[in-house]
Amino acid sequence: MLAAPPLGDRRWSTMLLRPLLLRPLLLRPRPLPRRRDIHAENTARAAVVDSVLSAFRSICGEDGVSMGGAVREQHGRDESVHRCRPPDVVVFPRCVEEVSALAKVCHKHRLPIIPFGTGTGLEGGVGAVKGGVSFSLRNMEQILDLHQEDFDVTVEPGVTRKTLNAYLRDTGLWFPVDPGADASLCGMAATSASGTNAVRYGTMRENVVNLEVVLADGTIIHTAGKGRRPRKTSAGYNLTNLFVGSEGTLGIITKTTLRLYGIPEAMVSAVCSFPSVQAAVDSTVQILQAGVPIARIEFLDDVMIDACNKFSSLSYPVTPTLFLEFHGSERSVEEQVSTTADITQSNGGADFQWAQDVETRNQLWKARHDAWYAAQALRPGCKAYATDVCVPLSRLPQIIVETKKDLIENKLTGPIAGHVGDGNFHCLMVVDPNDPEELHSVHLFSERLARRALAMDGTCTGEHGVGLGKRALLCEEVGPMAIQLMQGLKDTLDPNNLMNPGKILLPREM
Q: From which residue to which does the signal peptide run (predicted)?
């Protein structure tokens, strides 16, 4: 295969056309590399790493480079079931100039680059599948350029969502995208994260205004122009959203400018139990169809609510349940609650259990966010794996009912929790990692679920990303021509496949 032209070369524009001439990427088995080849490759890379350590230390200091086993292990895993793939070395840059300088060294010596935020991802996105250098961005923790009157702020990748909201506490503003974990905001942009508030406030894709990105060769770009932060723009290609959801495969996000929102005058939460899954999900769809601007509407099935009761010392009825939250003025919240109550009661829902003061609301949503750990506690010693499908709202009742039936018929432990207000739900599969038969059964279930979602015009991943586990499903979802176009973009921005290699796109036949 011909080498791609360097970044900035006039020929780059032809790169998007070249992939269309390649043979189809799907269904072509790729021969596995021989063990001897892998050993030789690892030995050669280790020699290169040794040769560049002094350059790394000159850039970010002695304390900014680590080859310790524990540190490398920490940076080779996330919260997923994918096995740990530690990098060869971990670097800790303190500013974008250091990130750029480190990337230039890696580019010169063809060392893979894996960005690392807080390690809370769920699809194996930080594993160093080809070894290389983990860029741990925790030391870049500045909150920059807060513009209260314009409702925006710029942050570095070491800033987490909880840190930002604590900083904003006295301004009357907040950042509502809430994936549960206290994730890095730049990492959230990289995976296009969302969470419980997405039904009203949108996902990261709708809330990122501008990004500063370091490309594979160390070039620093600003996707909407340096310092730009308009509320909208029609200026050229949408480079910002190209990098949102790119999972570190196109560049390292070193700053993100975010939309902020005013803290609502009133916030009220409620819990409502239902006689069946169908009744709870039908209520969700009807609430949205009625135009209620609900802030959160979360579904937990009977298995999940039982797990939460035990883990968080709650006492909710063990039936399908909705957790709801309403934001707005006192009067508008009253209207939202009244309409919602009428709908839930018409579907057999019980009376609301209220959580109005801040402490009670926080306890309620902490229980919801602890669902992951509550599910794991059902089978001590086991691991949890979260599926992540999303479908159009009208198909939501059907897919949840069918999925629940699938779980029961196959005797799988998979409590269901989901951000059903935007059609996204998760089966938190609890599996014994040492039981090959059970692992295989969960894998088959996950594929059935994903294909069920695709058959209903949905997606295999609503918010966790593709990472390692959903690369083949992505091919099925978008089709070979779209995959070839993605590969063309990857080749243009990262011709040597150094940026988080092995993620999102399947390895190509060479």
A: none
Whole-angstrom CA distances from 157 to 140, 251, 252, 478, 501 are 6, 13, 10, 30, 20
Residues 6 or more apart from 389 whose CB is under 8 A from it?
Answer: 399, 424, 425, 449, 450, 452, 453, 458, 459, 460, 461, 462
Which token pair is 132? 């290389």
451-469 pLDDT, tens per residue? 999 999 999 999 999 999 9
Instruction: Please tell me what DSSP assigns to residue 131.
Output: B
Over 220-231, what HEC string results?
Answer: EEECCCCCCCCC
Please measure the distance between the N-terminal and C-terminal CA atoms of the chain and give it in whole angstroms.
7
Q: Is 390 exposed, middle or buried (0-12, 13-18, 19+ CB in 10 A)?
A: buried
Secondary-structure percent of the chain, ordered helix, strand, coil, rounded to 5: 40, 20, 40
- Whole-number mean pLDDT of the chain? 91
How far apart are alpha carbons 410 and 441 in whole angstroms? 8
- Is 324:340 a contact under the CB 8 Å cutoff? yes
**How far apart are alpha carbons 56 and 44 in whole angstroms?**
18
Biggest CA–CA distance in the chain, Å, is 71
Q: What does each C-alpha distance from 133 to 72, 165, 248, 302, 500 come to in angstroms?
A: 10, 31, 13, 44, 10
- The dihedral through the CA atoms of 304, 165, 137, 233 has a sign that is positive
The reported pTM is: 0.89
Structural contact between residues 106 and 498, judged by C-beta atoms closer than 8 angstroms? yes
| Alpha-carbon gap, residue 277 to 227, rounded angstroms | 48
Going by pLDDT thresholds of 50, 70 and 90, the confidence category of residue 384 is: confident
Report residue 20's pLDDT band, with 50, 70 and 90 as the boundaries.
Answer: very low
Tokens of 122: 């769920």
| Whether the Cβ atoms of residue 210 and residue 225 lie closer than 8 Å to each other | yes
The closest alpha carbon to 126, from 502, 451, 436, belongs to 502
- Give the pLDDT confidence score for residue 129 in this predicted structure: 95
Cα(131)–Cα(114) distance, integer angstroms: 9
Tokens 């150094």, located at residue: 498
CA atoms within a 13 Å half-sphere pointing along the CA-CB vector of 104: 11
Q: Which residue has the tokens 């490398």?
A: 72
Output the pLDDT for position 38: 66
Above 90 in pLDDT, residue 423? yes
